[in-house]
């Protein structure tokens, strides 16, 4: 009879943990389940991974199987070591009827164990649906006020005859006030369908902020470029500043400069610990387009004795 490499069948290392074996089995069983798989030879592959899982998920059988070592190759001719049957006795499960059996390799090592045929395997096979991931883009207004948005996705759905079809699905998604960029919204049961009546997976939506024409986002802080006149920067002034929650008056200190940052506490992204709004001063020079404007600039040039390049080295 041919040797069966159960680790190779599940694609795991011989030192794989029980959780790793379980995960590998679920992934492959979902892929090759005869009721939904379009793969060539899916039913034979499904039986192979079921047999491998039966052995490797059972500590008693796995320990005995590991005693054979790794000297054998898949498909190599094999005979149990002398005295194997006398040394190992395994609990038998009740037969479900039918004539479908595991491989002769399995029967030789672990004793006869009848299965209820391929259809019985399918009826008793249950796997939770896969979790799916998508991205939802929200505006800053949604973030400041909270919102409900409709999201259309193409999702797989299992039909009555076990086939998987893609269909359009529309979901109403609640955007919580103050949600941060990169945070994830979990929609329970809205992921991939389960197999054999098992529960569906979950849908995880990663939140992304849409670009805003006025504000830049830095974590939970917002930044805005605030234009000021030269005399407002030099003499100080109170200027009107827009914020996502409404305009406020901001005091510009005398002697301010280009690029100076003025922090407005608590006017950034809302939340338990709200961010700040940072106003970045941008000094805007008026154009000398009229005789009077030119006269004022000439007066400044004569009387202020200002050299903007005084600090430059020759």
Concise summary:
This protein has helices at residues 6-10, 18-32, 42-56, 59-66, 84-87, 104-110, 117-124, 140-145, 230-235, 291-303, and strands at 100-101, 114-115, 132-138, 147-158, 164-175, 184-187, 203-209, 216-218, 221-228, 237-241, 248-252, 261-264, 277-283.
What are the salient characteristics of this protein?
3-stranded mixed beta sheet, 10 helices, Helix Hairpins, HSP40/DNAj peptide-binding domain, 28% helix, alpha+beta, 314 residues, 4-stranded mixed beta sheet, 3 domains
Notes on the protein architecture:
The protein has 314 residues and is an alpha+beta fold. It has three domains: 6-124, Orthogonal Bundle (Helix Hairpins), CATH 1.10.287; 132-209, HSP40/DNAj peptide-binding domain; 216-303, Sandwich (HSP40/DNAj peptide-binding domain), CATH 2.60.260. Helix content is 28%, strand content 25%. It is built from ten helices and 13 strands. The strands form five sheets. The chain has a four-stranded mixed sheet. Strand 8 (216-218) and strand 9 form a beta hairpin.
């Amino acid at each position: 009879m041919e040797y069966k490499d159960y680790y190779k069948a599940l694609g795991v290392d011989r030192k794989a943990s029980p959780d790793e074996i379980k995960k590998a089995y679920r992934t492959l069983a979902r892929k090759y389940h005869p009721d939904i798989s379009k793969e060539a030879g899916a039913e034979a592959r499904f039986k192979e991974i079921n047999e491998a899982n039966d052995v490797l998920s059972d500590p008693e059988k796995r320990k005995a199987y590991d005693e054979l070592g790794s000297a054998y190759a898949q498909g190599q001719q094999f005979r149990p070591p002398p005295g194997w049957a006398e040394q190992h006795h395994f609990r038998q499960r009740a037969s479900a009827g039918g004539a479908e059996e595991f491989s002769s390799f399995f029967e030789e090592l672990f004793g006869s164990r009848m299965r209820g045929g391929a259809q019985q395997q399918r009826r008793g096979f249950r796997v939770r649906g896969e979790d799916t991931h998508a991205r939802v883009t929200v505006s800053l207004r949604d973030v400041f006020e909270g919102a409900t948005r409709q999201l259309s996705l193409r999702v797989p759905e299992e039909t009555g005859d076990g086939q998987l079809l893609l269909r359009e699905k529309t979901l109403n998604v609640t955007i919580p006030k103050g949600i941060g960029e990169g945070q994830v919204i979990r929609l329970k049961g809205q992921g991939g369908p389960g197999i054999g009546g098992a529960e569906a997976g979950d849908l995880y939506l990663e939140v992304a902020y849409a670009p805003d024409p006025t504000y830049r986002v830095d974590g939970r802080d917002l930044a805005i470029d605030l234009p000021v006149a030269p005399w407002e920067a030099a003499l100080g002034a109170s200027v009107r500043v827009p914020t996502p929650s409404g305009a406020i008056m901001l005091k510009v200190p005398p002697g301010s400069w280009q690029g100076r940052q003025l922090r407005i506490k608590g006017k950034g992204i809302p939340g338990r610990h709200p961010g700040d709004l940072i106003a970045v001063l941008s000094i805007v020079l008026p154009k000398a387009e009229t005789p009077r404007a030119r006269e004022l600039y000439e007066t400044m040039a004569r009387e202020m004795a200002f050299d903007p390049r005084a600090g430059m080295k020759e």
